[in-house]
Design brief:
The chain is of the alpha/beta class and 385 residues long. It contains 12 helices and 12 strands. Strands 1-10-9-2-7-3-4 form a 7-stranded mixed β-sheet, sandwiched between helices. A 3-stranded antiparallel β-sheet has the order 8-12-11, with no helix packed on it. A two-stranded antiparallel ribbon has the order 5-6. Helix 7 packs across helix 11.
């Protein structure tokens, strides 16, 4: 077990603060200067962030979850945060970014890692994808409190990270220049810093787009949610705060039907973000507390059957029965649908009519066949991100 450090090295923290701060400031200037941006429920959300300023006083993690309507929803939606929130990485969101898009080489890896993005494999593009990939374990740990028995996870490569500029491998050379401690691997060969290993990153904030891809529908409906969000709620040591959100207008800034120049964001658009109430946290009686209790009983029963009830559990590490067993799968499905319902409540507050309940079912979307992106038969535009 590696000794726990309080925080990454000072140069690393400076690089992350600069990246988060500059991107945040530019994004806020773009959204409020060249577009129209309105928010609803922001004051309550800022109050929640202010309570989390002191890392040592945090009692739980924070999950924000929303619909996904634009390839640059993140960082656009965080333009809602005042400038003073931009330069404090310990109280800023962690996001999930596609490994094959955001981490193609060392430069991209450095930028997105400084920007607190975790490399995530997409199952349609990589055999290392899915809800049980190592990056999801890292996200679960970010929502928990260290130390962990194995901060760098078991699949960290023993060899040195590749020095090639075309390699995505990246480490903090000031924290572990020779041992490559405090790292993890997404596929058994690459190397990335493991932020959850540091005390200053405990009970962090993670944002997730559970649809897993951009969905631009004329009726402003959502696709089904993927199960990864259920892991982030069920597995941390205490129930995270959970804030559902609803986004509108960003699709006009980067619509999937846009013509040349496609890479240029459009201006003069009306955008809005609605922040819902905290539906997790310390308040007893919520559906998520009940689901977490059922998960706890399931884990204890499984370990008792295996004669390991007295052993400590590694956070985020699941046995096959807890991955693929019928009861575990059904519990994750139920949790995922509960999260989706909370986002729909915010959508309803915005004034939109209720969507067809079938919109939330996987079976509904299998009608798309093998087509993964572009214009769909229902008039929506989809981008696999």
């Amino acid at each position: 077990m590696a000794d726990q450090l309080a925080a990454p090295s000072l140069p690393w923290r400076i690089g992350s603060s600069a990246t988060m701060g500059i991107v945040g400031a530019l994004t806020r200037s773009f959204m409020y200067g060249l577009n129209s941006m309105e928010t609803h429920g922001l004051d309550s959300f800022l109050e929640l962030l202010d309570k989390r300023k002191d890392v040592d006083q945090r009692e739980r993690g924070l999950i924000t979850v929303s619909n996904h309507i634009c390839v640059i929803d993140d960082p656009l939606i965080w333009a809602t945060l005042p400038f003073r929130y931009n330069f404090n990485p310990s109280n800023s969101r962690w996001g999930l970014g596609s490994h094959d898009i955001c981490f193609k080489n060392k430069f991209a890896s450095t930028f997105f890692t400084f920007g607190q993005t975790l490399p995530t494999h997409r199952l349609a593009h990589s055999p290392h994808g899915g809800p049980f990939q190592n990056t999801m374990t890292e996200a679960v740990r970010l929502l928990s409190r260290p130390p962990f028995t194995n901060p760098e996870q078991t699949l960290s490569p023993a060899t040195s990270p590749s020095p090639s500029p075309s390699s995505p491998d990246i480490i903090d050379p000031f924290t572990s220049p020779t041992t490559h401690t405090y790292t993890y691997s997404t596929n058994g060969t690459d190397t990335f810093p493991a932020p959850s290993a540091f005390a200053s990153r405990h009970y962090s904030w993670v944002h997730i787009f559970p649809e897993g891809r951009v969905h631009q529908h004329p009726r402003k409906t959502m696709r089904y949610f993927k199960w990864g969000v259920a892991r982030l709620i069920l597995e941390p040591d205490v129930c995270p705060d959970i804030v559902p959100m609803w986004i509108e207008g960003n699709n006009e800034i980067m619509h999937e039907a846009r013509q040349w120049p496609r890479f240029v964001p459009r201006v003069g658009k009306r955008c809005a973000v609605w922040f819902g109430e905290n539906v997790g946290g310390g308040g007893e009686g919520s559906v998520f507390h009940e689901l977490r209790e059922r998960w706890r009983v399931l884990v204890e029963d499984m370990r008792e059957k295996e004669g390991r009830s007295g052993e400590s559990r590694e956070v985020g590490i699941l046995e096959d029965e807890l991955k693929y067993g019928h009861e575990a799968v059904e519990l994750r499905k139920e949790c995922t649908m509960a999260v989706r319902r909370e986002v729909l409540k915010v959508r309803r507050l915005r004034g939109l009519p209720d969507e067809d309940p079938k919109e939330g079912l996987v079976e509904t979307w299998t009608q798309e066949g093998g087509k993964r992106e572009g214009r769909m038969s229902d008039g929506s535009w989809v981008k696999d991100t």
